[in-house]
Amino acid sequence: MPTVKHLFDAMPPDRRRRLTELAHEVSLPRATRLFEEGRRADRFWIIRTGRVTLDQRVPGRRAAVVETLGRDEVLGWSWLFPPYLWHFGAETVGPVEAHEFDATLVRALCENDPILGRAVYRYVAETVAERLHGTRTRLLDLYGPQGSGAGP
Question: Hey, which residues does 74 pair with through a beta bridge?
């Protein structure tokens, strides 16, 4: 997890209020496809309850699950960086409750409010870095010489 556990905690209360005003609550049933790799990234979510898997297409095989996200985690960061295309696919594991945000509105808010924008960009960058580190560790555990990763 990033240094700050929740995106809302990464900003002052008045900025948090501005961001939460853009959110709407969604309830998603099990096995809901939220997005597909290579498609337009036009929203993101903060998971309140439930779990969502991130997957990547593998030619000639089923998509490979690369990460599972849960409570308080941000689902989606591709909406923040051009060309705004998803790098993975995502599907709910069971029922999910989440805050959903329109990416265009949040990007505009970030541009117009440098304090809020800096908090959002920093939080997302820390999230991406942490997930990249976790992926690297898992790959070392799977494919590296014994003792390369953080596992047993």
Answer: 46
